[in-house]
């Protein structure tokens, strides 16, 4: 499959590398990666995005991956970059979600692009360096040390520290994850038991430092300095999701943000921590897309899920089955001819797990068809 990434020129001439997945006419949502991170980070599978009608746009924030560095940037500068990418894609309105270090940058879009942003969410995001925030309380000692160094007038210490970590990550991409694992809560370690999530994180870290440590350095410095916008002037719906046991970006940050952003909703979730944000992303995307109009597709073409053929119009999850029927393998309904489904989605046809239904079916009668499948009726 070709690389879906493309370059966008920012207002000041810098190049940003962005990619998107899901239906081309889907409801657009921007996903902003963490610190460090890249556009390749964990996100729902394309099939999930297609079922939910969501077009997910991600990009390498400045200095990460294939995007040019923006020296001395502020958190608020992210709004102009998001607007430039949206313009390049012909998007008028969209939602934004930021995970971890991407959270403050999502809030920048809420504050500075109120006429274009529909909703904003942060997942385990961070607060600004405000006197009212007990910024380091509950944070790992390594994060405390690095963010404290980022507050110094002399930045040489944090530059040397992150240069070393970036070089090691570039040489051994898994080394950063292995370094973080002992610092994680038990909850986070359980999340990272998933080999797919591990692989996505390793790939994101590797891509993050392909051009050096500068995105990482600029990120931590920007988060400890003035953000360039006022939280109390945000006038779009904001949702703050945070794991109560987070020790990388402690939950006190979200509590403080909830008190500063007018009307903000706070989801403080027990028995969850920092990397739990990966698991809740699909449901948060659904909230962000709710009420957001689909964008027209130039020429009327619609991007299909990876490997799908035009004759496979849609596939939907079947509701939970009775144990006896589950034993028969009936789990999913597919709209399309049996031949087209077999060619496009061979993995879901294993062991009779799918009943392929004729192309005459549409959204109006798929429920009836699904009921026939659940009852094993031809």
TrEMBL record:
<protein>
    <submittedName>
        <fullName>Pimeloyl-ACP methyl ester carboxylesterase</fullName>
    </submittedName>
</protein>
<dbReference type="InterPro" id="IPR029058">
    <property type="entry name" value="AB_hydrolase_fold"/>
</dbReference>
<dbReference type="InterPro" id="IPR050471">
    <property type="entry name" value="AB_hydrolase"/>
</dbReference>
<feature type="compositionally biased region" description="Basic and acidic residues">
    <location>
        <begin position="1"/>
        <end position="12"/>
    </location>
</feature>
<feature type="region of interest" description="Disordered">
    <location>
        <begin position="1"/>
        <end position="22"/>
    </location>
</feature>
<dbReference type="InterPro" id="IPR000073">
    <property type="entry name" value="AB_hydrolase_1"/>
</dbReference>
<feature type="region of interest" description="Disordered">
    <location>
        <begin position="296"/>
        <end position="323"/>
    </location>
</feature>
<dbReference type="Pfam" id="PF00561">
    <property type="entry name" value="Abhydrolase_1"/>
</dbReference>
<dbReference type="GO" id="GO:0003824">
    <property type="term" value="F:catalytic activity"/>
</dbReference>
<feature type="domain" description="AB hydrolase-1">
    <location>
        <begin position="28"/>
        <end position="279"/>
    </location>
</feature>
């Amino acid at each position: 499959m070709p690389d879906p990434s493309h370059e966008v020129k920012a207002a000041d001439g810098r190049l940003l590398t962005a990619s998107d997945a899901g239906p081309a006419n889907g409801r657009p949502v921007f996903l902003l990666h963490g610190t460090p991170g890249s556009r390749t980070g964990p996100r729902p599978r394309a099939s999930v995005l297609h079922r939910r009608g969501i077009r997910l746009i991600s990009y390498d924030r400045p200095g990460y991956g294939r995007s040019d560095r923006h020296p001395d940037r502020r958190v608020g500068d992210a709004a102009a970059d998001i607007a430039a990418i949206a313009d390049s894609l012909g998007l008028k309105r969209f939602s934004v979600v930021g995970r971890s270090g991407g959270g403050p940058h999502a809030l920048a879009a809420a504050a500075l692009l109120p006429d274009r942003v529909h909703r904003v969410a942060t997942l385990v995001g961070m607060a600004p360096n405000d006197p009212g925030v007990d910024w380091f309380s509950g944070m790992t000692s390594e994060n405390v040390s690095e963010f404290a160094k980022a507050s110094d007038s002399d930045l040489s210490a944090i530059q040397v520290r992150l240069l070393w970590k970036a070089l090691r990550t570039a040489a051994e991409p898994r080394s950063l994850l292995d370094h973080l694992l002992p610092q994680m809560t038990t909850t986070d370690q359980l999340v990272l038991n998933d080999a797919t999530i591990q692989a996505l994180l390793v790939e994101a870290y590797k891509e993050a430092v392909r051009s050096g440590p500068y995105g990482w350095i600029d990120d931590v410095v920007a988060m400890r300095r003035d953000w360039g916008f006022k939280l109390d002037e945000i006038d779009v719906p904001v949702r703050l999701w945070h794991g109560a046991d987070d020790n990388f970006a402690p939950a006190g940050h979200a509590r403080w943000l909830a008190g500063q952003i007018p009307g903000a909703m706070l989801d403080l979730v027990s028995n969850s921590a920092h990397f739990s944000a990966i698991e809740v992303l699909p449901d948060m995307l659904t909230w962000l897309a709710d009420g957001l109009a689909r964008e027209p597709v130039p020429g009327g073409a619609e991007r299909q899920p990876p490997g799908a053929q035009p004759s496979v119009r849609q596939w939907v999850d079947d509701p939970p089955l009775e144990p006896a029927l589950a034993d028969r393998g009936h789990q999913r309904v597919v709209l399309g001819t049996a031949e087209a489904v077999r060619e496009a989605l061979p993995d879901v046809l294993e062991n009779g797990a799918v009943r392929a239904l004729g192309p005459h079916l549409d959204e109006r009668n798929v429920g009836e068809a699904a009921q026939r499948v659940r009852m094993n009726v031809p």
